[in-house]
Design goal:
Layout: H1 86-89, H2 93-96, H3 104-109, H4 120-132, H5 137-144, H6 146-150, H7 172-175, E1 178-179, H8 190-196, E2 217-218, E3 225-226, H9 238-243, E4 249-250, H10 257-264, E5 265-268, E6 271-274, E7 279-282, E8 295-299, H11 300-305, E9 315-316, H12 318-321, E10 326-327, H13 330-334, E11 337-340, E12 344-345, E13 348-349, E14 355-359, H14 370-373, H15 381-386, H16 389-406, E15 409-416, E16 419-426, E17 441-449, E18 455-459, E19 462-463, E20 468-469, E21 477-478, E22 480-484, H17 486-492, E23 497-498, E24 507-511, H18 521-526, E25 532-533, E26 536-537, E27 548-554, E28 561-569, H19 573-581, H20 590-600, E29 607-614, E30 617-619, E31 623-625
Parallel strand pairs: 3-4
Antiparallel strand pairs: 1-2, 5-8, 6-7, 9-10, 11-14, 12-13, 15-16, 16-27, 17-18, 17-21, 17-28, 19-20, 22-23, 22-24, 25-26, 28-29, 30-31
Helix pairs in contact: 4-20, 19-20
Length: 626
């Protein structure tokens, strides 16, 4: 069977391998833990049918990854491919005077949301997830390629049944047919019919904030939704007129951060928290789990929800908000308000022309590297060779991601004698960094020079040629490491502690990422997002209300001046090598493809988020002198 090469997200996104967390050679049989069952009358679940798949470490089944919400094969009206949206939502900036970059389709096509089905990192991780837990990839595909998942093409969890159009990732039609899992009167009345037909409702049990993990509700009919009353400013509803769709509905849900939380909180459903042993333990095999008690893989939405940003006023951050000074929701930063319009109707700007509250459909995160490698992928390059504007869109997306990184933190540096005090302030609405845990990191690089200009001290040295980060005694690196408890490691035959086996990890070994404004330990701990040390939640890392971290360096005698940089990497050398070396397919190794692209394109050279000097005097014209 010919397999499609792999790729992943990052913003972010990622969110998908988690579900692959399955392992269990021995089942959890504690009597105080309840497990879910499929409701009466629910459609029969398919089995895996890839006879060429390798033997997995854990013999999970389709039922282990079953989640509530809309299920495959429940669409009545086709989910139209993104190309259908270009006729109205692309190529119109010359008529409106807005930047081409803000055109709806162009902005989306340059985002990692549009590339989540092509991301080579995702494909490499997908193969490892399937090798760790049988069929775990199905859990990943539901977020990375939701159109293909909804139409039933995840029965091969390696993604080999996905079509060319499925590779377009998180697509326009999926988002614009999504329904709020919890009905409110402000949303369309049609939503009541959609929710009533769901055989497995999305139910949240406190303290869980949102199920996430791709538990989407999608309208089976082609009623497209958005936040505007489309017929108030123009005489026709364009979607049924030009696209054969049903009537367009007004949906405040599409401006709610919970919309993003459908995929940006991830829990591993094959684990359940056991309050007796105080561990996440493997469920009985062939049994649906409960995301309310599953292992927390990613908590980006919960981090935001428990922050000061989730308030009516939000936080003053004009650098993120576009045409608004205060930001509150996910959309305020990642789909900022700009001046423009979303498309054309009868060749004229729709919705009454340019608006100052138009949402920029760029959905930008911090991934500057993956968009650069996709056009050179041995399979995915065909898309970009056929339409070079898509390369332009990717390049524009890289610059937006770089801008986000350069505004995500403030760096304060003070030298007092031989002590250097460095403070990193988190300027985002979630942990810094956040999202996919594997390989993602941020660190401080400090260089000290003597009076002769010679380098006499360095911490956080990074070699761009070898991609090696030197782990010196003073290194401050911000990351989350997940891994195995001793009990699970013994079952799996793997080492206890930190691991890149995303689908099998059952403990947060360490997490020193900087929390956002409004952080409190108890609230974060309740949802599995607490800072951690030595495989335990650690309240000493950050005090309640702390959204910064301070590191004190003791400089050697003779240091008179120097520099501090805050650096960020989407993925590390160690993770890329892990994905190469643990790929189960010798004939088509997505890990090797990723590694080759990594070597060709700069080995993911770190991005400079912020930098500052110390010990310098400033003269005009602006120069620094020790």
């Amino acid at each position: 069977m010919k397999r499609i090469p792999p790729l992943l997200l990052a913003f972010g996104f990622a969110c998908f391998f988690m579900g692959a967390t399955l392992f269990s050679l021995s089942a959890n049989t504690s009597s105080n833990i309840a497990y879910a069952a499929l409701p009466d009358g629910h459609p029969t679940l398919p089995g895996w049918h890839n006879e060429f798949a390798p033997t997995a470490r854990v013999s999970t089944t389709v039922r282990d990854f079953f989640l509530p919400g809309t299920q495959p094969h429940q669409m009545i009206d086709e989910l139209q491919a993104p190309l259908n949206c270009t006729y109205c939502h692309d190529g119109y900036s010359s008529l409106t005077g807005q930047d081409q970059e803000t055109e709806t389709w162009f902005a989306w096509s340059g985002s990692m949301m549009a590339q989540s089905g092509r991301d080579p990192l995702f494909w490499a991780a997908l193969d490892v997830a399937n090798a760790d837990a049988d069929g775990a990839g199905e859990f990943c595909l539901r977020c990375h390629m939701p159109r293909g998942w909804l139409e039933g093409r995840s029965a091969s969890p390696d993604g080999s049944d996905m079509t060319f159009d499925d590779l377009e990732g998180v697509q326009c039609i999926v988002c614009h047919r999504m329904v709020d899992a919890e009905y409110s009167a402000e949303n369309p009345e049609r939503d009541l019919d959609v929710l009533a037909a769901i055989t497995t409702p999305v139910t949240v049990t406190a303290p869980t904030i949102i199920l996430g993990s791709g538990t989407m509700i999608v309208d089976p009919l082609d009623h497209r939704r958005g936040p505007l009353v489309i017929t108030e400013v123009q005489q026709i509803d364009p979607h049924p007129t030009f696209n054969g769709a049903e009537t367009t509905l007004t949906s405040p849900y599409h401006q709610d951060s919970a919309f993003c939380g459908a995929c940006h909180d991830i829990s591993n459903p094959v684990y359940t928290w056991n309050p007796v042993t105080e561990q996440y333990e493997l469920n009985p095999l062939d049994t649906p789990g409960d995301l309310n008690t599953g292992f927390p893989v990613e908590r980006t939405y919960s981090e935001w929800y428990l922050s000061e940003y989730n308030t009516p006023q939000g936080v003053y951050a004009p650098e993120f908000g576009g045409n608004q000074d205060y930001v509150s929701s996910c959309q305020d930063c990642h789909m900022r308000q700009v001046t423009g319009v979303g498309g054309l109707v009868f060749g004229s700007p729709g919705l009454g022309g340019n608006r100052d509250d138009f949402r920029f459909h760029d959905m930008t995160g911090g991934n500057t590297w993956v968009p650069q490698i996709i056009p050179s992928h041995p399979t995915f390059s065909a898309t970009f060779n056929a339409d070079t504007r898509r390369v332009d869109a990717l390049n524009a997306g890289v610059e937006r991601a770089r801008y986000m990184l350069q505004n995500a933190a403030t760096l304060n540096v003070t030298q007092i004698g031989n002590q250097l005090i460095v403070t990193v302030i988190n300027e985002t609405g979630h942990k810094l960094p956040t999202g996919y845990p594997e390989g993602r990191r941020m660190w401080l690089q400090v260089e000290g020079y003597d009076a002769n200009g010679d380098l006499v001290y360095v911490s956080g040295a990074y070699d761009n040629e070898t991609a090696v980060l030197t782990h010196d005694a003073d290194l401050k690196i911000y990351e989350v490491q997940q891994g195995f408890t001793s009990e699970l490691a013994a079952i799996l035959g793997l080492d206890e502690g930190a691991s890149f086996h995303f689908a099998l990890n059952n403990v947060t070994v360490s997490d020193n990422r900087i929390p956002p404004r409004g952080y409190t330990f108890d609230a974060y701990a309740a949802v599995g997002a607490a800072p951690a040390s030595n495989s335990q939640p650690d309240p000493t890392l950050y005090a309640d209300g702390q959204y910064w971290d301070t590191t004190v360096y003791t400089l050697p005698a003779g240091v008179t001046a120097g520099s501090v940089r805050l650096l960020y990497q989407t993925t590390s050398k160690e993770y890329v090598e892990f994905l190469r070396d643990n790929n189960p397919y010798p004939d088509y190794n997505n890990g090797q493809i990723l590694y080759d692209l990594w070597e060709e394109f700069g080995k993911n050279e770190p991005e400079i988020m912020a930098q500052a000097g110390f010990g310098y005097q400033v003269y005009l014209p602006i120069v620094q002198r020790p």
